Amino acid sequence: MADRETPEDRLGGYVDILRQASATGRRLTRTELESRRAQGQLAAETGLPLRGLIRDHLAAAQRVRTRSQAPLLAVVEQAVDAFVEGYERSQRQAVRQEEAARREFIDDLLYGRSGLGLLAERAERFGLRLSQAHAVAVAAGPEPYGDGYPVARRIEEAVLGRFGNRHILLATKDGSLICVAPGDRPDVLAYFAKQAHAATDGGRVAIGRSHPGPGGVVHSYEEALNALDLAERMGLEGPVLHACDLLVYPVLSRDRQAMADLVESVLGPLHQARGGHKPLLDTLIAYFDSGCVATEAARRLSLSVRALTYRLGRIHTLTGADPADPADRYTLQTAVIGSRLLGWPDATA
Asked: Which residues form the PucR C-terminal helix-turn-helix domain (predicted)?
C-alpha cells in the first residue's frame, strides 16, 4: 500500500459499506463480510499494525452521518470483526509457514540434507552463522519433548532470557530438546543442561564437541546422540555427559567382531558358574566402577566383603584372569566394557 493513501483508502471501501448498510438498517451481506476479511488479510500481509487500523475504522464510522446510531454501531461491529478475522487468519498462516520453514531447516541442519552453501544462507535467517564452530547439546527427559510443551518452553525461555538470541538455536527433534550454540560459548550449553535437568527432575543431557563449518553441527549432534546411547548401554551415571570424555568407547567398539571375540573368549567361561554368568558379571562391573575398591564394590552389590572376595576368586578360577592382578585387570575390564557395549550375551547370541 502506498504511503500517500489515506486511512479510508487503506480500509478498502469500508466507508461506502457503512453508508449503504446503515441507511437501510440492514446487516452486512456475505459478500461484504468476505471483502472485509480479504482487506484484513491484505493489511496483515502488508505489515500494517492492527491497532492503528482499528482506530481508522472507528474514526471513519464517526464521520458517517445517520439519523439512528444503533444500526451504524451494529454494522461497525460486523465490519471490524470480519476485518480482524481476516487479519488474524493471515497472521496464523504466516506463523505456520514460519514454523514449517524452521522445522525443515532444523531437519536439514541436523542431518546435513542440504547443500552447505544454501544451508549457511538459510541459517542466517534463524540467527546462526555456520562459518563458525558450533556445539550441540541434546536433552532427553522422562517424557518426550514436543514443540510448545510447557517444559520445553520453560527451558527455552530461561536460556534465551539469560543469553538472548546470540546465535543460539533451540528446537525439539524426535522427542529430545536440542540446543545449538557457538563453539566458544560452552557456558550456554552448560546452562541449558542445568535447566533441562532441573525442569525434568532427572533428565539427562549430552554435549557434543565443537566442530567448525556447516557440517560441524551434524557432527556434534551425532556425538551427543551417541553419548546418550552409550550412557544407556553402559549405565553411566551423572546428569551431564560430555562426548569428549567418552571417546574411548567408540574406539573400543569400532571393530565389533574383534570385541565380540574378546568378550566371548574372556567372559564366556562365566556361563559355567552356578546361577549363570550374571552375578559374576555384575560383580566385575561393580568392582571396576568402584575403582577396584572391594569395600565400595561390596556396598554397591549389598554383599559382605567376604562374599565379594569369594566371587572374585570364582571369576579367577573360571576365566584364568585375576581381577586383582594389574596385567589381567586390563583384559577383564576391556571385556566387561565390551559386554556392556554389545549387550552380551543376549545381543551377541
From this structure: 280-336
Q: Give the right CATH number for 136-246 from 3.30.70, 1.10.10, 3.40.190, 1.10.260.
A: 3.30.70
Tell me the domain boundaries of the chain.
7-95, 136-246, 250-342
How far apart, in whole angstroms, are the C-alpha atoms of residue 168 and residue 166?
Answer: 5
Top CATH class, 250-342: mainly alpha
Question: In the structure grid, which three cell numbers stand for residue 308, read together?
Answer: 565379594
Sheet with 204-207: strands ordered across: 169-173, 176-182, 134-140, 204-207, 240-242
The pLDDT tens digits along the chain (349 residues) read 445 566 666 787 888 888 888 777 788 888 888 988 888 888 888 888 888 888 888 888 887 765 555 567 888 888 899 888 888 888 777 767 767 777 888 888 888 666 666 777 778 777 788 888 999 999 998 888 876 678 888 888 899 889 887 788 888 888 899 999 999 999 999 999 999 988 877 789 999 999 998 788 889 999 999 999 988 888 887 889 999 988 888 888 788 899 899 999 999 999 999 889 999 999 999 999 999 999 999 999 999 999 999 999 999 999 999 998 888 999 999 999 999 888 898 865 5
Where are the strands (E) in the chain, listed by range?
134-140, 169-173, 176-182, 204-207, 240-242
Contact 270, 319 (CB under 8 A): yes
Other C-beta atoms closer than 10 Å to the C-beta of 45 total 13
Q: What are the φ and ψ backbone dihedral angles of 303, each rounded to 5 degrees?
A: -120, 165
Phi, psi angles (nearest 5°) of residue 153: -65, -40
Give the position of cell 549432534. 221
